[in-house]
Every structure is written in C-alpha cells, then in structure tokens.
Amino acid sequence: MLLALLFSIGWALAAPLLVRAAGRAAGWVLALGPAALFAGFLAAGGTVGPEASIRETAAWVPTLGVEASFVLDGLSLLFALLVTGLGAVIAVYAGSYLHGHRDLGRFYLLFFAFLSAMLGVVLADNLILLFIFWEGTSLCSYLLVGFKHESTPARTSALQALLVTGAGGLALLAGFLLLGIAGGSFELSVLMERGAAIRSHDLYLPAFLLIALGAFTKSAQVPFHFWLPNAMAAPTPVSAYLHSATMVKAGIYLLARTDPILGGTGLWTWTLAAAGAATMLVGAVGALRHTDLKKVLAYSTITALGTLVVLLGLSYGASIKAAIVFLLVHALYKSALFLVAGSIDHETGTRNVLHLGGLRRAMPLTAAAAVLAGLSMAGLPPLFGFVGKELAYKAKLGVENLGWLLPTIAVTANALTVAAAGILVARPFFGRRRTPDGSQVHEAPLGMWVGPVVIGLVGLAFGLVPGLLYAPVSAAVDAVAGEPVDINLALWYGVNTALYLSLATVALGVAAFAGWTPIRYALLRLRRLSRAGPERAYEAGLDGLFRLAAWQTRFFEGGSVRSYLAATFGVIALAVGGTLLLRGGVSLQPAVLLDGLQALPYETGLVAIVGAAALVAARLRSMLLSITSLGVVGLGLALLFVMMSAPDLAMTQFLVEVLIVVIALGVMQALPLAREVEPRGRRGRDAVLAVAVGATVSMLLLAVLRLPFDATVPQYFLEESVPGGFGRNVVNVILVDFRALDTLGEIAVLAVAAVGAFVVLKLGRPARSRLGPPPVPSVVLRAGARLLLALLVVTSLFMLWRGHNEPGGGFIGGLFAASAVVLYLMAFRQARTERLLRVPPRSALGVGLAVAVGSGLVGVALAGAPFLTGQWVAVGTLKLGTPLLFDVGVFLVVVGFTLTIVLSLERVVAGPPQPPQQPLASPEAAAADRQPARLNGGTTEPAEV
Amino acid sequence: MSAAVLLILPIIVPAVTGMLTLLARSFPSAQRVLSLLGTTALFATGGLLLVQVQAGGIQATQMGDWPAPFGITLVADYLSAGLVAVTGFVAAAVAVYALRGIDAEREKFGFHTLFHLLLMGINGAFLTGDLFNMYVWFEVLLIASFVLLVLGNGREQLDGAVKYVGINLVASVSFLAAIGLVYGMTGTLNLADLAGSMQNVRQSGMEATVAMLFLIGFGIKAGLFPLYFWLPASYHTPPAPIAAVFAGLLTKVGIYSLLRVFTLLFPEPTGYTQTVLLVVAGATMLLGAFGALVQRNVLRLLAFLVISAMGYVAMGLGFFTTLGLAGAVFYIFQDIPVKTSLFLMGGLMERETGTNQLGDMGGIYTHRPLLAAAFIVPAFSLAGFPPFPGFWGKLTLVQAGLAAEQWTLVAVALIAGALTLLIVGQVWARAFWRPARNDGLVSNMSAGTRTILQGPVVGLALVLLAVGLYAQPLFDLAQTAAVHLTDTGPYVQAVLGR
C-alpha cells in the first residue's frame, strides 16, 4: 500500500511533464496511473475476505507514536477502488474539459496529489497518519477550488472551504489525540479491540464530539454545509471528483471506520441521526432553490451525505449495509451527473437550467448517460439507485424507538431529490429546444462523454445484478460492523413497507418537479427571511474577528516610544513588585535600615546628594542644567566608588562622565535649549511609574542583602590573581584574564556602537547649530591643549602599562588618551585634529578587536589550550603575557570608539554645510537591480566604515 | 578537533569574518565572498559541533583554562549545538541572498561586518554557560541589530529602531537586575553551578520574583506578551536579509535563554510561575495571530506571526514536561528556517510586485510559480499543516498539553493555528492568486539576480519539506535536548565535573 501511495505521489509529480509530452492525448495518458492502481487494488481485493485484512507497517516517527502503517480491509478496499476508479475516469474527462488550458500541468499535479492524499486517508491505520492525509486533502482541495484563481469568488470560496474543513481538522486532531490517550494507541486496528473500554473512558465524550466535528465539517453536515455549494467555483472535474465522490466522503469514511470504536452509544446515534436528518432536509430544500446545475448537484450531495450520516448513526447491520450500498450508488450517479453538467456547460456556455432544454438530440450520448444517472438518483428500478434507496428505507424502518419521524424525513428528502433529478436531467435534455443564444450545439468530445456513459452503464449493471457487489460490500460491512454480518443484495425484495415508501417518494417527487417554479419562488422569498443561516454566522464571525483583531492591535501597537516605555516599566513594577508582595521574600525593617545608614554617614550624605541631583535633572526645563545635574549624579557615584575603595571603577566612571558631558554639549548645539512641558497627567503617570519601579528595585536589594553572601568565587580571584594571572590588580586580571570573554564581547559592543554612531551621523541631516558659528577657541586653551595632549597621552600609556598591577588598565588608559584628543579637538577644531591623527579613529576599532582576538588565539595555536588562556614569558624580572596584549586591544577599541563618536558628532554640528540626505531606499522598494548612487555629494571624505 | 576548539569556533569564525570584511571595506565583491565563506565555515563548524555532541555527549570548555565555576564556561548540549548548526545554515542562506539583496550603500557602511558580529553574539548566547556572559552576548547582538536597523537611516527605520533599542535596553536592565540578585544570593554566575545553588533563593521566598525578572528580560527579547510591541514596530523596516536574520534568530535567542535559565535555575516550577508562563504563552499565540490578521504590510504581518510562534514555544516550557520541552525545542529548530525563508520571501514578493502592501500585490502564482511553490512550505508549516515541520512541532505540543491536562491552552493553540491558516490563506489569495495589478509584475530583475535571490528561498523550502517528511532525526535531537533540560545532571557533570 505504501508502494501504491508512492506510485501515486510520483505520478502526481510527473504529471506536468506527462502533460507536456502527451499533448492532445494528455487525459488518456494520465488516466493510466489511477487505472493501474485500480487494477492493483482489484487484484488485491481477491485476498481481502470478510475476515482477512492486509496490514503493512513501517517506522516513521515512532517517538510520537506515528507509524507508517496501512490496512487494507473491506472498507478501505471499497474506498480505494472508488478513489482510483473514478480518478481514472475523471482524469480522462479533465483532459478534454480543460484541453489547452495554460495550467493543465499544475491541474494534474494537484489532482493526483489529492488522489494520493485521499488514498492515504482510506488506507492509513495510524490515526495521526490518517490526519496528515486528511489535511492533505483539504490543502489540495483548497488549491483546486481556487484553480480559476483570477476570479474573486473562486478565491473566496477556496479560503472558506479551507477554513471550515481546516478548523474541523484541528478539532479532529485533538479528538484523535484524546482517543489515543483513552485507547493507549494510535493504531486503528488496536483501538478496535479496545472499543468497549474506550466508550466507558472519561475522555470518550470529548473525543467523540471532536472527531464528529471533524467528520461533519469535511462531509458538509449542517451547520457546516455552506462551504460545499460555494466550492462549486472549482472546475467541474474537481467538483465531480472531490466534492461529490471522494473528499466529502472522507467524513463518512471516518465515521464508518470509527464505528466499532466509538459507535453504538446513545450519544453516537443521536448526534449522527440529528445532524444527518437536518442535513438531508436542508440539502433537499436547497437543491430546489437553485437553477445552476452545479448548485443543484451540490445541495443534493449534501442530502446524500446527510442520509449516509443517519445510516451510520443507526449503526446496526442493516443500516451499515444500506450506508455502504448507498455510498456506492451516490458516488456513481453523482459523479456522472457532474460530468454531464460540465459537458453541458462546455458545449452551451451556461449551467442555468432555465436557459436549457431539448439537448437530447444534439447530445445523444451525454443525454443517455444523464438519463441512466438521473434514474438512479431518483431511485427507480432497475437502476442501482433503487437498491440503495430500498435498503435505506428498510434500515430506517428497522429502528424501533424513533417511530415514523426518520422515515418521514427520509421520504420528504428523497422526494425532493427525485424532483432535483428531474431538474438536472429532464429540464436540459427534454422538452422544447433551448440554448442561451439559440446557436447550434454539438455532442461533447469523446473524452467527455465516455466517462459518464461508462459510469451510467456500471450503475445499470449493478442494479440488474446486485450480486456482483456481494463480496466487496459484505467485506466493507463487516469491517464497519466489526463483526461478520449476514447480507444479501437483490433488486427486488418483494412487496413491503419500503416499497410503499418508494412509491410515495416517486409520486411526491414528480409532483414537486411539476410544481418546481412556484416552489422555487416561494423558497427564494423564504431565503430573505433566513438571513440568520450558518453562512451568515460564518461571515459575521469572521467580520467580528477582524474587528476585534483591529481593535486589539490598535490598543497594543498605536503607541510612541514613550508610551511603550511606560507600559514596559508598568509591567515590570506590576509583575516583579507584585510577585514580591504576593510571594513574600521581603521584610522591611526600618530600624535595621536606619542603623545601617547611621553607620555610614558620608555614604548616606553622598547618596542624598545624588538623589537630589537626579530629582533636579528630572524637574528642570533647561537641557543644559539637566545635563549638568546628571553630571553631578555621575560624579557622586564615582565618589561612592572611591569610598568603597574601588579606584578602577571610580576612575572609569569619572572619565566617562567627563566625556558624556562633552558629547552631550556637542549634541546640545543641535537641540532645543528647553524641553517641552509635558501634560500634568503624563508627568503624574511617569512619577508613579518611577516610584513604583524604584521601590521594587529597592525592596529586591534589601531582600538580597538579608542573605549571607557566598564569597567562594571572589575569594578564588583574590587568591589566584598573582600566582595564576601574574597581576596584583584583581579587577584588571578579571577583565583581561578570568573573564576576558566578557571583555571581548563588550569591546565588540563598543566597536559596533561606534560604527552605528558614525553611520547615523554620516547619513543624518546636518543640524544647524542653534548657537551660531562656533567661537574661536581662546589662545590659553590652545596653548594648554598642546601641553595637556602630550601629558595625557603619556599618562594613558602609563595607565595601560601599570594596569595589571596597579589601578589602571586598557579601559582607563583608553579613556585618558581619548580625553586628550577631545581636548585638542575643542582647541583646534575638527580639521586639525584629523590631521593630527593621520588615520581615521575607526581603524583602531578593527585593529583593537583583532589584537584582542589574536591574543586569545595564541594559546590555542601554541599549546592547544582553551581560547584566551594566558601565555607568559619572563623577560628578566618582568612577566609578559597575552592578557597584556589583550588589554592593548581594549585600549585601542576604547580610543577608537570615543574618537569616532566625538569626531562624527563634531562634523555634524560644526562641520561645513551639507546638502540634505535622502534616506537609503531599500532594494525591495526600489524593485530594481543595484544601481550604485553616490550618497554623499561633496562631503569631506569618502563614506565608508 | 578538540572540544575546546570546536566550542569557540562558532564565536571566533564570525568575529574573524567580520574583521576581514571590515578590512575589505573598499571591495564589495570581496566582502560578499568573505561573507559567504564565513557563513559556510560557520555552518560547517556548527555541524561538526553537533556531530561531536551526538558522539561524545555534552561538551564544555573553560575559557582561559580557569576551572568552572570561576572562569567562563562554554557548553554545547544538544539544544545549543543544534541551534548553532541551524544558525549557520540560515546564515549561509541569507549570505547567498545578500549577494544581490543588499544595496551598495549598506554594504559600504558595513552590512557584512555587522551581520557577522551579530552572528557572533547569537552563537555566544547559545553556547555560554555563564549568566553574565550571556548578558554580554545579548548586548553584542542588541547593538549589532540596532545598527543594522538604522543602516538605511530612513525616518521609519529610525523610528522603529528607537523603539527597538529603547524597549530592549529595558529588557537588558531587567536581565541585569536578575543577574545581580542571583549573584548576590548565590555568589556564582556559572549556570551549572547555579543549578545546585538555588536552594538558598528558594528558601528565601524570592524564587518567583527572580523568575519574573528573567521572564521580563528574556520575554521582551523573545517577543512574548505583553511586551512584544517593539517587534512589529521595527522588523518590517530593514531590507529582507536583515529582517530575515532578525526574525529567524533574534527572538530565538530570547526564548532559548528562557528555556536554559528556567530549566537550570527553577527546575521545580512553582504553580505561580507556571501559571504566569502559560497565560503569557496563550496570550502571545492569540494576540500575535490577531495582529497579523489585520496587517496590510506583508512584512509587518510576518512580524506578528513571529510573535505568535513564540507563544507555542513558551507553552512547551510552561507544561514543563519532557514532551512539552521536546515540542518547544523542535518548534524552535524548525521555526528558524521557516521565519528566515518567509522574510526573504517577503522581500522577493516586494521586489517582484513593487509594493509591500498586500492589497496591491498579485500575480505571483501565474508569473513566478517556483516562488509560489516555495511559499507554500514555510507558510503552511507556520499554520501547522502536515506534512510540513510546523505540524510536528504543534502535534508534540498539543500532545504534551493533553497529557498535562491543560485543556484551555490546547484549545488556544488550536484556535491560533486556525487563525494562522486564515492569515496564510489570505496572503496566498491576495499576493499569489489574484491577478497582478497591471497585467504583469513590475520587477526588472535579471535572470541571474532572480536565481540568486530565489535560490536560498527554494533551498530552505526543500530542506523544510524534507524535515517534514522525515521528522524522526530532528525529533530525536529535540527529544534528547529535552531530556537534558529536564534532567540537568549531565549538563552539570560536563561543566563542573561532578
């Protein structure tokens, strides 16, 4: 069976090539594939007896319980024959029907892909495997319904079908998984033996309901039936194959398949009988409302599907037999009638029965096929349809506690089906000759009439000699019933209640056909009343969904950075602070806190100053003063580091603060001097948020400080710094050795940030300085700057050198060097500074990173040691090693970083006027190949990084 | 190759490539070749690392040869090695696309350098076994992605970039605060060491609070509810290759860290944390899909779908069972190429039709059948349709949810799947099926350019299809990764030797 599937998939993939090779005979050639499969299944069928089934299994995703296991028993054989046999017939038909269509290759690809998926559904023994193929049929159906994709209704209908069956599919998946939990296996063959246990399991109810939901959506049961008439937007061969004969029967197949596992309970019977009966009526009435042949066919298909669901719901020997026979009956006559409708459409250009009549003379062969199929649909002897209907009536009469309700519904639905058969066959082919434009009509080509005629004749043969079907039907019934059922098949069972019902049905049906026009008008008027149908609900639901989504998205996405930040801080305060309060872990002890503060009077005072400065910075309107206040905050922190005896941190903080103020002042030249006054409400909100977040963090810190600190790691650093790291400055040894990888990451951050600043400032619109042209620097500054430059550069190198043992290091040294150049810049402006530097400071970024990475690789190359392992040599009393080289890399990156930013900024705020820059067009928006365009007209240096 | 070398290579290779492209800044074609070679080498090292882990178990190396927990450890378990390999794979695909998909100006301003430094940050985050070092790599990838975002300097881009960097800095602060607290309470930063040192925190009652801080820090990066708004505000602004790397990889770093830290630090989740996670996961799945439903801009639509997918992963973590984690890991693995290919696809759709508005697109199915076929795979994979890999991820997660009796979450996941199906169907109907506006596509790409741009998209689709059809190997990987996430003994053993 796996082989059959692989063959079928291969056939699908080869289809586009075959179409091209076969030319006019494409349909006939492509039908060979399914025909071969049909023959194969027929041959295999001989070995599938009532009690024997063939099972194949291969591992696929065993960990998830998904096996590639297939089973061929009576039921799957019947479906496989139907799928492949009709597949072959319709493949021939499609070749003529779509002859010369540009996308014929794609059509056959999808058609056979569907065929493969459908075969998979009926052959799979593993539930998940079945589901995969099930979804495959939905996907192929989607693509086939939308085959005429230029038309809007086709696209809309395709999506609707996909959504309804797709949503049902998701329910089905959940149902299968629950069934798997309840039954302890995903193999149908295993589950069938555990039916009784499953039906008494707690999960039976949800599993059944979800599976039924999946089956009902697929098989177009009320209230999910509306997608099927809309799916008629598909090309007719697709409608004939997918939407009458096979795919819509997948739900029926599933119900039949799971009957031995889930069936026989009151829940099963009532759910299926109710849904099926409602579907029968809705379909039967709907069929009479329409004049489009395909819509009439679609609604009568719905009726038939309802009938099948009712019969399976009754779930006993006679009803199962009736279901199996009626399934075959319907598949045959309905596919034939669809093909006939397609031929009519093809030859006359319309499917509206009001514009058609008397075609039997022009299209005799098609007419003959239509008559055979129509009589079968009406359930008249000696056609196969008669057999099916009699069995169905008998089955429904055999149920005791339902009384006459079910037969009454059945008679009504069937009578209307008889009328529908009249509409489909008698109207177009008999009576006065009528075509839309009165033109001459020809018989359909061979490829298009042969299929319906063959199917019609098969229906006649099965009607005359039903015994032909004894073996396959009885095998299928046994499979559904889960036990051998004694059946007999005959055209004539004698005079009984079922026969009376049949006679009544035909009489009523003929009457309904005679009065079709008034009935149709009445139904059309009624339709206005029934605006609250399920399709409306679907549309309203979708509409509501979109509105909800739009509202929700506006709510979350409309904001500015400010509101996003406020929301983020709000969530932090709520989630973290809330959890802290809810889950405990914090105990405020004001007395202890106050004692602590009294023990550290200087620190307390300093913190108070820092806090006050921060508050001032937040309150002031003047940007200049705000920045100065922030400077106070920074310097205060630096002082705090000094008090905590962390000279490296203090030095770094101090230098950073100085540079920040310089940079901020540079930026200031291009910004308004006063900030906008914000509305009181927003300031209030921000204040609340700030307090909440601040309080949360403070509480967290207090909570942590209560706990004893485990100092193993810092202790190790202190002990290992000299013997292992050859440095007395533990902070530096941590930076360049113990945790050098962190530092490497951080200098990468600096390098990238510098590149970013450069790019933004390079491309940005040059700002007009609000302070006018820069004043000429004072002579004193210029004189001092030269001296300080030399002094600071020497200091920086000294700092770098001694850093491993005394406070200092690459970071601090780099900041010193950068400060020196910044000072020079303030005195002599940009051009002279750049001349002084000779190379753009960006170069230092790359070189620095390379030095740092390279120093880490020395050990890897020399000793096979891990990355960043220090390699040391002794030069006299001096220990030299790669960590020192690493520090040089850090130094270079820090210098490069600072100078890149400062110089780029200087160029923007004080440089020569530049023309406004256009933002880069994205390549997509330009929708064109690369067209190098100069970006910087007349700037001082080439734009690069 | 020794583990020590293999573990550092995924960080060193992009670093060196980045520096070389910087040196070659005046020679764009040299940059492109270097970039291609660099990503190929990265893919190769990732693959080797994965093979090594599969052969020899979890690999660890101590930076600077300082023993754990004192120095910084790099660790590769199945999850990390797998992610590094997938990262290399999609990076190579993007590098191919970027041969023709990046404008000359961006190249000149350092696209290739930034791209590789971004990869360095991503791989660093995946491989590090140290909490603070993870923070450092977060900074690297944050700054690199920020600069990649502003590289074009359009107003929209700057606006998106400022939102991006603003919110993500807050995330970093939250993460840093969490690190500080954890260090203060345990005295260690080594993740394996922390796995054994958290009882202190548990006893103090602070566990849930610390977990919240991590959840906010990583959750923002991962695009989880309710703090995902920066993502759709920025991801649609850069050109396709940049957006593709972001969408494929950046949120994954956030969710990876969540998985890593939560499984090591909070191995017995309190009902509280678990409930919060599950609510967050459900809301992320649903609201992400809601957002995508109403987007007109294709790239923004895709950005919302990035969010929705992260909900599924968070759900797997929330169940906190081996099966749930296996589902989460599988989902991450397959979602990386899915998102990368969809964003590259989005760029191609824009180039072919000359617009990014769904309402104005059309005609791709008729005129570019290959592109259309390549769209089906990742798109329906996203909707969880078989036989594409997304289905297997969803199947596992739903199975885990049912086993954990989390009915509501399962229902939400299935509904979000249906919504995604609707979204994908709409995109298909509008951009692909509907006839082109002016009776044809506007693009005037040369055949060579088209081949280069379509190559990675088609290649990714084929790989995804193969994974979907034979999911067992990847699932085995995910399963083993999940086992090591639930039983952290081997991880700790590999790092600390005890």
Structure explained in plain terms:
- The complex is a heterodimer of chains A (about 950) and B (about 500).
- Chain A has 37 helices and 4 strands.
- Chain A is mainly α.
- In chain A, the strands form 2 sheets. A two-stranded antiparallel sheet of chain A has the order 1-2.
- Chain A is elongated.
- The two termini of chain A are about 60 Å apart.
- Chain B has about 500 residues and is mainly α.
- Chain B has one domain (about 5-490).
- Chain B has helices at about 5-25, 30-55, 80-100, 105-110, 110-125, 130-150, 155-185, 190-195, 200-205, 205-220, 230-235, 240-265, 270-295, 300-320, 320-355, 365, 370-380, 390-405, 405-435, 445-470, 470-485, 490-495; strands at about 60, 75.
- In chain B, strands 1-2 form a two-stranded antiparallel sheet.
- In chain B, α1 (about 5-25) packs antiparallel against α5 (about 110-125), α3 packs antiparallel against α5 and α13 runs parallel beside α19 (about 405-435).
- Chain B is globular, with a radius of gyration of 21 Å.
- At the A-B interface, β1, α5, α6, α23 and α24 of A face α1, α4, α5, α6 and α7 of B.
Summary keywords:
heterodimer, A: 945 residues, mainly alpha, 2% strand, disordered C terminus, B: 498 residues, 2 strands
Secondary-structure map:
The complex is a heterodimer of chains A (945) and B (498).
Chain A: H1 2-22, H2 26-45, E1 54-61, E2 66-72, H3 74-97, H4 104-123, H5 127-145, H6 152-183, H7 188-193, H8 195-199, H9 204-218, H10 227-230, H11 236-245, H12 249-262, H13 266-289, H14 293-314, H15 317-348, H16 364-378, H17 384-397, H18 405-429, H19 446-464, H20 470-481, H21 497-514, H22 516-529, H23 534-557, H24 561-583, H25 590-599, H26 601-619, H27 623-643, H28 647-668, H29 680-706, H30 712-725, H31 730-738, H32 740-763, H33 779-802, H34 810-837, H35 842-863, E3 872-875, E4 878-881, H36 882-910, H37 923-926
Antiparallel strand pairs in A: 1-2, 3-4
Helix pairs in contact in A: 1-2, 1-4, 2-3, 3-4, 3-11, 3-15, 3-19, 3-20, 4-5, 5-6, 6-9, 9-12, 9-13, 11-15, 12-14, 13-14, 13-18, 13-22, 14-15, 14-18, 15-16, 15-17, 15-19, 15-20, 16-18, 16-19, 17-19, 17-21, 18-21, 24-29, 26-27, 27-28, 28-34, 28-36, 30-31, 31-32, 32-35, 32-36, 33-34, 34-36, ...
Chain B: H1 3-23, H2 28-56, E1 59-62, E2 73-76, H3 78-101, H4 104-108, H5 111-127, H6 131-150, H7 155-186, H8 191-195, H9 199-204, H10 207-222, H11 230-234, H12 240-265, H13 271-293, H14 298-319, H15 322-353, H16 364-367, H17 369-382, H18 389-403, H19 407-433, H20 447-469, H21 472-486, H22 489-496
Antiparallel strand pairs in B: 1-2
